[in-house]
Amino acid sequence: MGDTNSASTSDANGNADTIEIAVPLRAEHAATLRLIVTSLGSDNGLSIDEIDDVTLAVSEVFTLLADDADEVGASHAHVGYTAGPGVITITLHRGLDDEELELDALASTILSSVVDRHVVDNTGITLVKHAAEANT
Asked: Which residue of 64, 104, 120, 129 has the fewest CB atoms within a 10 Å radius of its CB?
């Protein structure tokens, strides 16, 4: 079974880039996801602190997805990154039908403090971070 990874670049009108990747739900692969966040955040105007915030959020969600992966029969995290000038949106899920993910109080507090918005639904967890300069 091979992973399907794809990427598209922004068009002449400046529409956001999208990258999709599937990685095994093992701790050593969290670094790969953080590296992509760092690159996209830097390329799209996020500060070092903002990039650190998003990498922390991605690590938190990846850990949540990996913790009970064997119990629910999941082997991969499916991650979609959409980045444009001053914003990055990341969606993480395990590719399971109608999965009901829940954040514990600590995870919810962490995400609330490091990203502008996070949404948990049956399609996964979505994180949104804007560059501070984009908000002014």
From this structure: 104
Q: What is the pLDDT along the chain (136 residues), one digit of tens a residue?
A: 344 444 434 555 556 778 999 999 999 999 999 999 999 999 999 999 999 999 999 999 999 999 999 999 999 999 999 998 999 999 999 999 878 889 999 999 999 999 999 999 988 999 999 999 755 4
Among all chains, which residue has been given the structure tokens 């995400």?
Answer: 111
Asked if residue 35 lies in contact with residue 23, where contact means CB atoms within 8 angstroms, the answer is no
User: CB count, 10 Å around CB of 39?
Assistant: 14
- Nearest residue to 127 via CA among 41, 11, 48, 42: 41
Does the pTM exceed 0.70?
yes
Q: Which two tokens stand for residue 35?
A: 């590296």
Tell the residue number behind the tokens 């990685």, with chain if given: 23
Query: Is the Cβ–Cβ distance between 50 and 57 less than 8 Å?
Result: no
